[in-house]
Amino acid sequence: MSSVGFDDLGWARPDTDREARLGLPEVVFGPGKTASQMVGVARSLLAANQGPVLVTRVEPATAHDVLREVPHGHYDAGARLLVWRPARPLAFHVVVVSAGTSDGQVVAEAIGVAGAIGLSTEPVADVGVAGLHRLLAERDRLAAADAIICIAGMEGALPSVVGGLVGCPVVAVPTSVGYGANLCGVTPLLAMLSSCAAGVVVVNIDSGFSAAMAVYRIAAGR
Asked: Does 13 reside within a domain?
């Protein structure tokens, strides 16, 4: 183990000091890595830190291979997430609002990551603006949230509406769900960045992970 804040594995340098700086260990992005590479990085991070270790976007067969070598973890198939040592729950409640069931994989990632790092979550599904009465029927649940993750594709209008209804932080996630002019998520991304609801924060396309981590920073700094 290096004394300079990272572990030099030769082919990777896990940031073993990140938990001390940011409150959570480095999270591993799974795509592009072999199972043996995930094993090496996970072992390094588990040895160097006390908090949860996560690998995102992992396919089931790869997850099986990794858990065989690094036991005592859990695989969330819906979120495609490997987790060791999930964090103790924080007193911080996140409502995850989504426009439609086609956004489900992004919702699952947001909920899976949030739960692993100690945030309690509550889903409010299929409340897109094409049927606004569905969202308005959930106003009490929205008002009770400490923060909201708002996930939408198509034209991406939902976060503007939610942002106008609540006073808590709103983190918007554009998704690649939609027909041709959705442009694989670029259209809702630009719509959310241009929202007339002041203070809505926008993360990358399809990144439920980024939304959960943004909310964690809000919770940790409260």
From this structure: no
